[in-house]
């Protein structure tokens, strides 16, 4: 058996229907192992065994030896917004609850073509970042969710596809309760058994739906064996609105109407009381822990390590912030260390392995995908990554899990696979033209200017010019720079706080 030279590896290396892969290391549930081989056929892992034993059992298959490559499970993003990719940096530096001022008007302005374009761009970013699965929380657009499913099919990203079922606002098109539930049932039936898409139902936040709708939507998901999604306890404003309106916090509200349970996946849960942690544990409700979202726009950091100690299920999610799975794990560990570990003297903060676990197998659990994906094991879908280990940052290796959490980066991704098919090679998709997509996005993104978006803060260039330390120079005076950015000026003019009031109310929450 001879090694396959690194220089000869190409997408064609993985074109066969059956693959016998012999990587330098394999990341299994209990850690990294060398001397292993993996057999892939019919889109699934068929066997994982000692390399010599497996090659002897299958003399008909030419072994593909992958020097310096780690074969590991694909990452699972447990909370994404695939139809928000056209407005990424519009929210940078903005105060919390940006969904009211940016995301609701942006998504509401998308037709089905723009919906598909946005989702395809987001799916490409996810795959480039090592995510083989994304849980989409649903779009507020009036367009058909089939556009998002098409983007998943075209790129090869596995997708848990949410359908928003709000009956009190927060979407571009409003329907009556019975019609919403009929659409929900059709959505669940439509994608049942799809090779890449699994259906899900969602309520944007608890205040966006009646008690009856919250209960019915969650019950439909429980019956269908899929996840019910909602955002909860993320921002102080939302918690206080719930307290004023109901004398209950959002999580308590969900519990009171019977919407919590093993089928429920609540995003964020950053502002949680001890009693609410008990609610999550006792109802077996799962949490999407979004550490980058906490850093960029949140009011707090979810106590993920405490959740783990209590047996509360959670997976890592991006919230559509940055699709780099390695940096997400780093953010998860860093957030726990800064928010809790420093004060308690906890230097380990999860020991490295925990963040790998909750970005892969644990994430599959909360996404309703246990038994389908999330680890390298016989019978599961062959969703995996090939990670280049022959880089200075991981040489020499003393503790591979910690190295993956703190040192690895998406530029080490040699290949990204779902259902046994190569989807990305060295950062770019296989079988379709990503550069053409980017050109299309640049041309279409002008439509974003027409959405009634309201940004509170200036662009980075304007902020720099307005900074007091630079105001000594006339060319950097506020008068000179106030309207340097046409796009910002347009957004501020078309959606000032006064003119945007009706938009916020119309799309509430």
TrEMBL record:
GO terms for molecular function: hydrolase activity, acting on carbon-nitrogen (but not peptide) bonds. Residues 71-421 form the Amidohydrolase-related domain. Keywords: Hydrolase. Pfam families: Amidohydro_1. The keyword Hydrolase applies. Residues 461-509 are annotated as: Disordered. Residues 471-487 have a biased composition (Low complexity). Gene3D superfamilies: Metal-dependent hydrolases, Urease, subunit C, domain 1. It comes from the Bacteria. The keyword Secreted does not apply. Belongs to the metallo-dependent hydrolases superfamily. ATZ/TRZ family. This is S-adenosylhomocysteine deaminase. The lineage of its organism: Bacteria, Pseudomonadati, Pseudomonadota, Gammaproteobacteria, Oceanospirillales.
């Amino acid at each position: 058996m001879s090694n396959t030279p690194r220089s000869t590896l190409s997408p064609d290396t993985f074109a066969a229907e059956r693959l016998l892969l012999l990587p330098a290391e394999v990341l299994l549930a209990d850690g990294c192992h060398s001397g292993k081989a993996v057999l892939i056929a019919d889109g699934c892992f068929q066997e994982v065994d000692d390399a010599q034993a497996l090659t002897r059992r299958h003399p008909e298959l030419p072994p593909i030896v992958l020097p310096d490559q780690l074969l590991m499970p694909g990452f699972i993003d447990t909370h994404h917004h695939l139809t928000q990719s056209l407005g990424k940096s519009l929210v940078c530096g903005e105060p919390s609850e940006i969904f009211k001022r940016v995301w609701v008007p942006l998504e509401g302005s998308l037709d089905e073509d723009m919906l598909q374009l946005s989702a395809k761009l987001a799916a490409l970013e996810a795959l480039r970042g090592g995510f083989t699965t994304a849980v989409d929380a649903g779009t507020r657009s009036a367009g058909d969710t089939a556009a998002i499913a098409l983007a998943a099919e075209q790129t090869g990203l596995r997708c848990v596809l949410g359908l928003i079922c709000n009956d009190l606002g927060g979407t571009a098109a409003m329907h009556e309760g019975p019609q919403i539930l009929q659409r929900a049932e059709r959505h669940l039936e439509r994608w049942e058994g799809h090779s890449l898409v699994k259906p899900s139902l969602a309520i944007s936040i608890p205040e966006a739906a009646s008690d009856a709708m919250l209960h019915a939507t969650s019950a439909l998901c429980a019956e269908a064996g899929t996840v019910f999604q909602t955002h909860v306890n993320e921002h102080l404003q939302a918690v206080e609105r719930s307290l004023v309106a109901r004398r209950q916090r959002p999580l308590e509200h969900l519990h009171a109407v019977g919407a919590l349970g093993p089928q429920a996946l609540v995003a964020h849960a950053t502002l949680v009381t001890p009693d609410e942690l008990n609610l999550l544990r006792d109802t077996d409700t799962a949490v999407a822990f979004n550490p980058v979202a906490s850093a960029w726009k949140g009011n707090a950091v979810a106590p993920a390590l405490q959740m783990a100690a209590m047996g509360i299920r959670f997976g890592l999610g991006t919230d559509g912030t940055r699709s780099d799975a390695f940096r997400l794990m780093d953010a998860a560990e860093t957030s726990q260390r800064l928010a809790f570990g420093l004060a308690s003297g906890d230097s380990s903060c999860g020991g490295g392995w925990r963040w790998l676990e909750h970005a892969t197998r644990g994430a599959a659990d909360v996404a309703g995908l246990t038994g389908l994906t999330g680890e390298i094991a016989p019978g599961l879908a062959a969703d995996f990554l090939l990670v280049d280990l022959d880089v200075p940052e991981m040489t020499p290796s003393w503790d591979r899990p910690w190295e993956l959490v703190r040192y690895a980066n998406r530029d080490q991704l040699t290949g990204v696979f779902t259902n046994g098919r190569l989807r990305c090679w060295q950062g770019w998709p296989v079988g379709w033209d990503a550069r053409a997509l980017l050109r299309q996005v640049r041309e279409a993104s002008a439509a974003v200017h027409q959405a009634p978006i309201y940004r509170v803060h200036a662009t980075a260039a304007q902020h720099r010019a307005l900074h007091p330390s630079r105001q000594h120079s006339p060319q950097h005076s506020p008068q000179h720079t106030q309207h340097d950015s046409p796009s910002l000026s347009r957004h501020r003019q078309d959606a000032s706080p006064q003119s945007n009031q009706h938009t916020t109310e119309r799309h509430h929450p």
